[in-house]
Amino acid sequence: MGKIILSIAINVFLLMNTYVSGSISFTIVPETQYVYINDTVTFKCAINVTQFNPSFVTNPSDVGSELSSTGMASLTLTATSEVNGTEVTCKVSNGPTTEPAYLYVQGPPDSVSSFTGYQLDSCCMFISWYPPFTLPGLTVQYIISVGTDQQYLNDSITNYTYCPMNPTNKQYLFNITTTNKAGNGSTSNITVGFQSTIDVELYVTDKERGNVNWTFHFIVSVHQFCTNVPPLMNITLKGCTKDNCYSITNVSISNSSYNNISLVVQFPSNKTLNTNATLYYQNGVTAQSNTITI
Ligand SMILES: *[C@@H]1O[C@H](CO)[C@@H](O)[C@H](O)[C@H]1NC(C)=O
Ligand SMILES: *[C@@H]1O[C@H](CO)[C@@H](O)[C@H](O)[C@H]1NC(C)=O
Ligand SMILES: *[C@@H]1O[C@H](CO)[C@@H](O)[C@H](O)[C@H]1NC(C)=O
Ligand SMILES: *[C@@H]1O[C@H](CO)[C@@H](O)[C@H](O)[C@H]1NC(C)=O
Ligand SMILES: *[C@@H]1O[C@H](CO)[C@@H](O)[C@H](O)[C@H]1NC(C)=O
Ligand SMILES: *[C@@H]1O[C@H](CO)[C@@H](O)[C@H](O)[C@H]1NC(C)=O
Ligand SMILES: *[C@@H]1O[C@H](CO)[C@@H](O)[C@H](O)[C@H]1NC(C)=O
Ligand SMILES: *[C@@H]1O[C@H](CO)[C@@H](O)[C@H](O)[C@H]1NC(C)=O
Ligand SMILES: *[C@@H]1O[C@H](CO)[C@@H](O)[C@H](O)[C@H]1NC(C)=O
Ligand SMILES: *[C@@H]1O[C@H](CO)[C@@H](O)[C@H](O)[C@H]1NC(C)=O
Ligand SMILES: *[C@@H]1O[C@H](CO)[C@@H](O)[C@H](O)[C@H]1NC(C)=O
Ligand SMILES: *[C@@H]1O[C@H](CO)[C@@H](O)[C@H](O)[C@H]1NC(C)=O
Question: How far apart are the CA of 268 and the centre of ligand 1, in A?
Answer without folding.
Answer: 108
